[in-house]
């Protein structure tokens, strides 16, 4: 077992801001950089020291900023580069480092590079993107993009198709071209010069394509096959990633948090080994995607608490040996965790606290998504016209066009749409939740009058105050950062529990994932000689965990732990 070196980013607590929905400062209904500056004191109060900012680059906003028109510019609705500089300065005064999104798989089709590339087959930048001629009068391959429909878009001007793993307005860069890679590395240098700490690396496992560009086997009578089979963690991708680390990231001390779908457990050493891995830490998605059918289209599968535990535990145990995880339950691509994994009804507050304790004290750097710290819930959208996410809109159009009922797809979106995590931050019970004085770009969840920051700040027992306690605990006890992880009650379908051990300290976390009392005769033994240091209930029951109860115990370990 390799020693884990102390690092500032391991001891940090991170917070993700989706700028469009965080705080509007000028009444146009869209969150902006000045709004974020206004809320830095709140983040400091919460205890945040690492901030992940989703894209604010200049963009046509086809995919809410992940279609970048200019890597060195700020989208006007978010503010100016001077605002960005001020944000970095003001965050630094509060001990908060900033991480930007690195979107390097694709650009916008309005990026200057692509405009040149599509202008003619002879343009010097033609090979900066992936172009192919028609095959038998149709697309070069039968690949389906992640947002539905063909992954190839016909370009009338130059008479060829270009590849896009995501929206047709997000053409994929050709990473086989050394000039492209060099421009990406130059851009990394430019932002590091600005003073950022590093990057959350977006969709990075898509950058390498199957060089044969094969036709794929199609299932269920569909016209296209998921592009992931030919453009996700393909052989040879590590050559690109190691070069990026050596040429751009490592020399600048940049931390990296990789969104790396398709990476199997056995590849952890390649991706996040302390010495040889290409990234600092990794997000894995097994626990948030266990409800959808692999290869299906808007199809759910049954899952249970044990599958959820197992998906997290698998990577926890591996990180005991090597590597470091980014811990999360929510982000801008996923729904609200209390609605998905617990209960957003009468037990919402204890359920939100329980989920917080369960994931936050695992081995890794915890990430809080805006609004998670007050227990924000999924929002009910009345019709498809209230959605803004391109993937959700395309899915509804495509699947209803194939004969599936609108009610079925709306139900799916209500439980899976990315817009569930993108409704505006609920600051107060004032109009539009204090997010804007104008009309918000997407609807505010109507429950903002009951769930908001102001009320959470005033209530000593609120979800927000519970998160502050968790952050303080983690700062105080190195065992909750560097301690080894050990599962407890592995076979239970009701309880999630684990042990963290480091040097002479031991912590035990026990959580009830149900809305019923769960008998636990072992509770008396587990609490014997141990101090209860955190609970989401004021009173305990003997030998019982109450609905969505979370308990954290601390004691001296019987044997010394390892890092």
Give a short overview.
It contains 16 helices and 22 strands. The chain has 563 residues and is of the alpha/beta class. It has an eight-stranded parallel beta sheet.
What does this structure look like?
It is a single chain. The chain is of the alpha/beta class. The chain has 16 helices and 22 strands. The chain has helices at residues 33-38, 40-46, 81-93, 112-119, 178-194, 237-249, 268-272, 305-321, 337-341, 348-360, 390-401, 406-416, 453-458, 463-476, 479-482, 523-527, and strands spanning 14-17, 50-53, 57-58, 70-74, 97-103, 131-132, 143-144, 152-155, 160-163, 198-202, 225-226, 255-259, 281-283, 326-327, 365-369, 484-488, 495-502, 505-512, 518-519, 531-535, 544-545, 550-556. An eight-stranded parallel β-sheet has the order 13-12-10-5-2-1-15-14. Strands 16-17-18-22-20 form a five-stranded antiparallel β-sheet. α10 packs parallel to α14 and α11 (390-401) runs antiparallel to α12 (406-416). The model is unreliable at 559-563 (pLDDT under 50).
